[in-house]
Structures are given as C-alpha cells and as structure tokens.
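Q: Study each token:
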Amino acid sequence: MLLEVRHVTQYHYAEPVRESVMELWMQPQKSATQRLLSFELELDPPAQLFSYPDSFGNAVYHFDVPHPHDRLEIVARSAVETQTPQPLPEALDRGEWDRLRSDFIQGECFDFLRPHGYACRTGALDAFVRDKSIEDLRRYDPLTAARGLSQVIYDAFDYETGVTEADSPIDHALAQGRGVCQDFAHIMIAICRGWGLPARYVSGYLFTNRGEGHDRSDPDASHAWVEVFLPSLRWVGLDPTNNIPACERHVCVAIGRDYADVPPSRGVFKGEAESQLAVGVSVRRARAAPAEPEFLRMAKPAFAGGAQRRRTSLTGLVDQQRHHQQQQQQQ
C-alpha cells in the first residue's frame, strides 16, 4: 500500500517568545514491511535542522529558532510503501513462556520488561485485571494471551477524545472507562510486562477508510499501538484500540518504552507567554510513487506571503545517520 502522510503542528504564543528549541520524532521507519520513499520537513520560522538516532534507533530531528517569534509551524510530509506482514499462526506452544524467561531474552528486551513512565502497574490497573479475570489468559500461550488482552481492552473501553491528555496516567482512562489509543497502549503494555512478556510502545499513523467506519481511531490524528516480543516470531504488532493486528495500514514512526520516549514533538521556549498547540494529520493513498526520490532533490527556499519558509529534503541527514549507525556497529 502506497501512503502519503501530512502532519502539521502549530504552536501559537500569546506574545513573542525569545527562542524555541524543538525535537521531532516524525520520520517513518524503514523495515522489512515498510519502505520510506520520501520525507521532508518544512519549518516556519526557518531553522537549520540536525538529526541523530536515539537509543531505540529512531530518527530524531532537532532545531533552534534563536530569535523572537509568536508562532511556530512544523509540517512533516512522508511517502511510505507498506506491505502486508506475514500471517500469524493461530497459536504457539506453551513452551514459549519458558523461552521468554531465558537470560538471553531477558537481556535483549530489558528495557521493555520493566515498568516505565505511563506504562506501570497501579492499584486501579490491578483492580481492572481482577475485574476482567485477565490473569486467566495466562493459561494460554503468549500469542493467544496477548490477542485475548487486546480483545478485553477493546471491549472494556470506549474511544473518546478529550477525556485524557498526552500526560495523563492510565488511572484516568481506567476510572472513566474511556480514552484514546495512547491510553489503551499503555494499559496493555503494563499488563504484558507484568506477565514477563516484553512489550513496547509504537507511535505512527493508521490509514483509515472514512467510508467504511470500521476503525475507532481518529483519522485526523497520529496513532499508537503495541508490539510484543515472542521468541518464535520476534516483534508482533497488536492494535488494542481497534482490536486488530498491525497491518499494511499501520505506518510505524518510532518505538519506545512509552509515549514519553517518542512524542511527535517536544521542546521548550524562552519567555512567559501562554502557548496553544494545534495538530492536524492526514493519511491517504498515494496516486503513484514519486517519480524521483525526494532524497535526491536539492532543497530550495520557497516564499509565501513575503515570509521565507524553509523546505528541507532530509536524505543527506538520513544517510549521515545511517553512516553513524554503521560506525557504531563496527566499534
């Protein structure tokens, strides 16, 4: 499936701020089932972009606007080709639980086995686990148990925006019985880790066919789901918001222990002005693959309304990042 993603982030300040420093997790990943065809960032006010790979291998871009401004707009555009993952088996043998307890797996998945940030056990979560008899799922193999957990979360919660915030603990969604994809992912991750099943947070996008209406996700927002590690299958994506496995409609951007590791944007500014954030996302089918990879095009400044806007093609940064990763692997 060939998809185009446009992610617009706007910060508005009540009065000019003196400086803004930002980090961005917006570049889709490259994997066996996902090919990144193009990626570009447009910044207003213009700024010089830098990049680095974080500890989880995600591409992070950062920039500094060192002069006064009363708004900041970030537009990320991507073209991605996704493929249908290999079909999952109906079940695994129960020996998979024993394989998960091996020293090798415990070391390899150390970061995704420990409680962290929003994905941690609480009294409210323990009550939810008891009320829904979730521990009974451990009678099955880990794959079946994880699928069953996704189903329980899907059935137990309504999808509703505005009930929780980006920094809300899972207790808010548990108390309300409502929330969004981020909440459901954190709840599932916390339970899986309590089972000894490595689980990680995945941020990205979901292509939603508005006419069919099968998905609960907001088609105009970014998306989040869960990947669990199974020794026989490696990382397997499950989407508890829609109770489906991750498929060709999911576009993976970044992975982490929880949302705090991979927010689309994060930054600080100098000043005392109040700020407002507006975000818009569109994911649609592309008409055709780019005739020429955007990575190979020279960046040219564009002008709109008399104000200079910088559109930066990021292939050089991506190549530099890959070079750094190769150097690290050789050391």
In short: The first strand starts at residue 2 and ends at 17. DSSP finds seven helices and 17 strands in the chain. The mean pLDDT is 88.
